[in-house]
Amino acid sequence: MQDRPRRSERERREARQGSTAMRIFGPMAEAGAAAYLRARDLPRLIALWPRELDDHSPEGCRRVLAKLRSALRAERRRALSGHWSYDLNRHLGLISAYKGELAGLSRIEAQPNCTRRDKDFGCE
Prior knowledge:
Layout lengths: L8 H26 L3 H8 L4 H5 L3 H24 L6 H23 L14
């Protein structure tokens, strides 16, 4: 038998709540990330300049991800403190946008860095 420290009732309750929240809201966030469109969704969630919205380079995606992380932290703080301005729909929108931007960044970084359009080099 292993010697594991016993978890308090609070820790058990928090573990249950975390898994319940992931089970309920996880599929919603995944579906939102699949339907994510940067030009449509981002202006409603975070303040961006038009040049930031149009910047699809890896650096631009990383800047947008940093802003989304910051907005998510603020929304989580509001949720945990029970603040009146917390909005579950905004929270889910931020999570969906974050996952969508992360998927877009991984697609950009996975593409070969081809500048010539030669079939000899594998770029078409």
